[in-house]
Design brief:
Blueprint: H1 2-25, H2 49-59, E1 65-67, E2 70-71, H3 73-86, H4 88-91, E3 97-102, E4 106-111, E5 121-126, E6 145-147, E7 150-152, H5 160-175, E8 184-189, H6 200-209, E9 219-228, E10 238-245, E11 247-256, E12 260-261, H7 270-283, H8 295-305, H9 312-320, H10 323-330, H11 335-341, E13 344-352, E14 358-359, E15 362-371, H12 377-388, E16 394-401, H13 414-426, E17 431-437, E18 453-462, E19 475-477, H14 478-494, H15 504-523, H16 538-552, E20 557-560, E21 575-578, E22 583-585
């Protein structure tokens, strides 16, 4: 009997081990297909002294948002005027770009595309910054001094890098007679730091009511960054694309009782009762949501990127690809992990008492929750009530916003590939990871148009510099700002590329289409009028054909339309790839072409 039990246990252990290893082998990946951006490229935008000076001038405007209704509007007006005068091609009366000023200080640009069948895309940033009051900077707060390769000023990374990066890219494109297929909207709100009610909300209303926008292909906004030192074992920088954004809710907890003299205290004081309630919230945090949101994809992708010595590399792959079993192990409560996998709980205010010898008659505490995308505000409040378990404690919702939906972040997603692919195209040594943005932006005003909102700031920092956001000595590298300009340039260009450019199979098809004329020389009876430009060896072409046939063959015959990429004079022609991988002509063809007739 004991032997049978041991054999059974051994078999189950063996099956479990096989399952764990199989899951580890079938780990996720993100394959991006865009050609890397290099300084030697003809269209690389150099950071000239003029471009740097424009950025520095923009940083010197003290466009501070203190609170709702408290902004330096004079500085905002001066910055808007500076922008309009500094980018003449963008703001010319003859420009193809249309500018609408929203609510005096927010800017909405429209670049009309030639193909109305394509959904428009929105790039956004904001003009305002947070205060520096009470912060001990080592550099002047708004002078935009350049020192040791960095530009120091409030707003360098949050988020005037976005404003001036986009404008520089647009100015460059317009100088090249840019005429996009897709319509683009560029939105610069003026009050993002105080929730965007007068900026982004009004822009969204204008898009809906005046521009009649119903859907957007994607939204690109500030957010996560390229990060060194993200996690031990990841030698490459992490290009983190925020695919969701935490919501928040501020709760006021209160308890009221009868005041009295401190010489005759009751068994429970008002402060003691509320303090115990707060302590319970801190001891019993909101439940882990690991596996319910995008953090599962983050950890699975990390397992493929980590470079650890044996056997730690095997252990990491097994653990991170089998969260159904190892969830408790991964869910330990250090602050970064907490922020990723659960709704966080932070007690930010506690008020009680009026005099040292008077018993407080009331006590109040404010609790700030940052809500995981898998939870709602109501679920968070219900959890707090259950944990406090004291009906004397009143819970009041002060304000809050639900977490945003999770944007597409699969390899097959066109929108994600455009944004993430562009980021890796510019930050060439990085590895793409989806992420949850734990702070708050004003993108919630645009969720009515799409859930595909991607939060990425083209900034490259080390983990130790993360506290410079809203903090002391905010800065951006000079070369990083140059990369930011090129990121927005390529983002605008890449969003015009066909969808098949951003899938692995589609990329192979495009390669096949580019090289197809070489193969057609021996088999097709119609002329081809597009040049190849590269040698395109026959073996590479045949390999591409074999891949297409193997991956897409419907029964015995695969039909591939190549007319869009391989043009034929006077007529469009189809091409059929038979199951043996050889092409056959369809519908005859034209009688002449630049490369001459191709006889079978």
């Amino acid at each position: 009997m004991a032997r049978t039990a041991l054999v059974t246990i051994a078999c189950l252990a063996g099956l479990l081990s096989c399952l764990l290893l199989l899951n580890s082998l079938n780990s996720r990946s993100i394959r991006l297909t865009l050609r890397p951006c290099a300084k030697s490229d003809e269209d690389f935008i150099q950071l000239t002294e003029e471009r740097l000076a424009r950025f520095q001038r923009g940083l010197r405007f003290r466009t501070v948002s203190y609170d709702i209704g408290r902004q330096d509007t004079q500085q905002l007006a001066e910055m808007v005027s500076f922008i309009r005068s500094s980018f003449p091609r963008v703001h010319s009366a003859k420009s193809s770009v249309k500018l609408t000023v929203i609510n005096q200080y927010s800017l909405l640009y429209k670049v009309q595309g030639s193909d109305s069948s394509l959904l428009p895309a929105l790039l956004m940033s904001h003009l305002d910054v947070v205060p520096t009051d009470g912060q001990n900077w080592t550099k002047p707060h708004f002078d935009a001094v350049v020192e040791d390769g960095y530009i120091y000023a409030r707003g360098t990374i949050d988020d005037k890098v976005g404003v001036f990066g986009i404008l520089e890219a647009m100015e460059y494109l317009l100088a090249k007679d840019w005429k996009p297929k897709r319509t683009f909207y560029i939105a610069f709100g003026h009050d993002e730091e105080i929730h965007g009610f007068q900026g982004a909300a009004r822009i969204a209303e204008h898009l809906r009511t005046v521009e009649k926008v119903q859907k957007l292909e994607f939204v690109s906004d500030e957010g996560m960054v390229v990060l060194d030192g993200f996690v031990s074992g990841l030698s490459a920088p992490a290009i983190i694309i925020g695919v969701s954004e935490k919501g928040y809710v501020n709760l006021r907890l209160s308890y009221n009782s009868t005041p009295g003299h401190s010489s005759m205290p009751p068994a429970e004081s008002v402060i003691g009762v509320l303090a115990r309630a707060v302590a319970r919230l801190e001891a019993s945090q909101q439940p882990s949501q690991l596996g319910n949101g995008p953090e599962k994809a983050i950890l699975e992708l990390l397992s493929t990127y980590l470079k650890l010595p044996f056997p730690a590399n095997i252990a990491a792959r097994v653990v991170l690809n089998n969260l159904w079993l190892f969830k408790p192990l991964v869910s330990y409560r250090n602050p970064p992990t907490n922020a990723l996998i659960r709704t966080t709980t932070a007690v930010t205010m506690f008020n009680a008492g009026i005099k040292h010898n008077v018993l407080a008659s009331s006590a109040q505490a404010v609790v700030n929750h940052r809500i995981h995308p898998s939870q709602t505000i109501q679920q968070v409040v219900d959890h707090d009530r259950q944990v406090i378990a004291d009906p004397r404690i009143q819970i009041e919702i002060l304000d809050g916003i639900e977490a945003s939906p999770v944007a597409d972040c699969e390899e097959s997603s066109y929108a994600f590939q455009v944004v993430a692919g562009t980021a890796q195209q510019v930050f060439t040594d990085g590895r793409v990871l989806p992420g949850i943005f734990v702070a708050k932006t004003d993108t919630n005003h645009y969720l009515q148009f799409t859930r595909n909102v991607y939060r990425f700031t083209p900034n490259h920092i080390h983990m130790r510099d993360a506290n410079r956001y809203h903090g002391v000595d905010e800065r951006i590298g000079v070369t990083v700002f140059e990369k930011a300009i090129n990121f927005y340039y390529h983002l605008l260009r890449n969003a015009d590329l066909p969808r098949e450019q951003f899938s692995l199979l589609g990329h192979r098809l495009l390669r096949l289409r580019r090289l197809l004329p070489h193969l057609l020389e021996a088999h097709v009876d119609f002329p081809v009028t597009v040049g190849v430009g590269q040698s395109g060896q026959l073996l590479e072409v045949l390999a591409a054909v074999a891949v297409v046939v193997a991956e897409q063959r419907p029964a015995q015959l695969l039909a591939v339309q190549v007319a869009a990429a391989v043009r034929v004079e006077d007529a469009e022609a189809g091409l059929q790839l038979c199951s043996d991988g050889l092409p056959a002509a369809a519908d005859g063809g034209a009688e002449r072409g630049e490369l001459g007739q191709r006889q079978a």
